[in-house]
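Exercise 3.2. Students should predict the tertiary structure of the chain below and write it as structure tokens, then compare their answer with the key that follows.

Predict this chain's 3D structure.
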Amino acid sequence: MDWKLFLTTALAAGFGAAAGAFALASAGGGIEHQADAKMLEIGVAILREPARVDDDPMRSWAVKVVEKKSGVSFTDQQRAALLKRAAGGR
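Answer key:
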């Protein structure tokens, strides 16, 4: 994967997670918001790991969770980079 695309995708995911966490924290922090924040945290953690051959469904779920819980949508190129298996994956 091109390092510029990887960096752009990683930054977008990080900014999306930060924006989502800030929005959740400033919205009152109720039980539902805490659950949303935890789901966002899980989704980002999954996407931080290198893609493997057997985790396509999990990564797809994580992309959807991060988009929904953060309120930030990925471009098609960013989404594809997050879902793409690493070269020679594990």
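Discussion points: Residues 86-90 have pLDDT under 50 and may be disordered. The radius of gyration is 13 Å.
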